[in-house]
Amino acid sequence: MNQKNFNYNIDQLVFTGFGPNQNMPEEQWNKMVDEIKTKMMSGVESFTAEHKASYGLDDTTTLLGFNKSKNSDFYFFNSFHLHAELNNKEKVFTQKFDLRTFKEIPGQEKPKKNRNITHKESYNLLAGRSICKQFLDEKGGAYDVWMVANFNKVNKHGDLEITKLYPGKSYDFQFEKELSKYPIKDLELDVSRDHLYDSLKRGNQQAVIMVISGEEKLYHIEADARNKTFNVFDDKGKVLSNEQHRELQQVVKNRPYHKSEFETKDLVSEHSKGIDEEGKREKSTLYLDAEGNDKKNNSQRKTMKVQ
Q: Are 257 and 274 in contact (CB under 8 A)?
């Protein structure tokens, strides 16, 4: 077994979201790593390793696929099959996700985010949420592509069709503009705003604080890329009606610094800057891990899964 190749595969597992975290204890992770090492040492042409994780009432079991190169003794982690049991097994899906090796473009910085679909993102897709991945054109220019699972189309292998929504004349989800229509406290600071953007683009249903008439209220929000908007839930997990959406958006419209047209960098940057100059800027309320999950404030930010 080639030790560097083994280390590379373990790094790829972590980068794709299958590393040790709050959903996979260290002991379970070490057992899986030992299993992978044993199978690589055996020299078999291909093998799988099992990964288990839970998200609230949802359980996932994933078979990680490794194949040996035809030209060397190197192995590569190139696919995974995700089996998701949602809402206490009310909905069950199994889906294969292939992993690509992307060619590096000379002179371009290596992307920090995984361009393949990660474990948490694959779960979010099967839970009916939207994810956003970054693609590169021939010249290395980056652009966002939203993805959603089509539960009405299944291929011959039993996998759901994953619809890719490319930016263009027929589709334009103005993500930041639409989100700015809500009185979300986390949008007021650069750090918390960036974390919120990142979490929502990973497909997470994210806890947020909205400020209404000076009072802070807890909501949960998720991107709905197909309809170019957001789904919002109250603190009990009940989805808001269209009328309730309009009421929240009216709060922003009534603000003295509200502008009729979205000015990207910033609807609220001058407001935040003013707070800074007075020395009253508050710290970010979001503490996220690599998958966009809250690591702190669990008592206030208890994630709800609403399918």
A: no
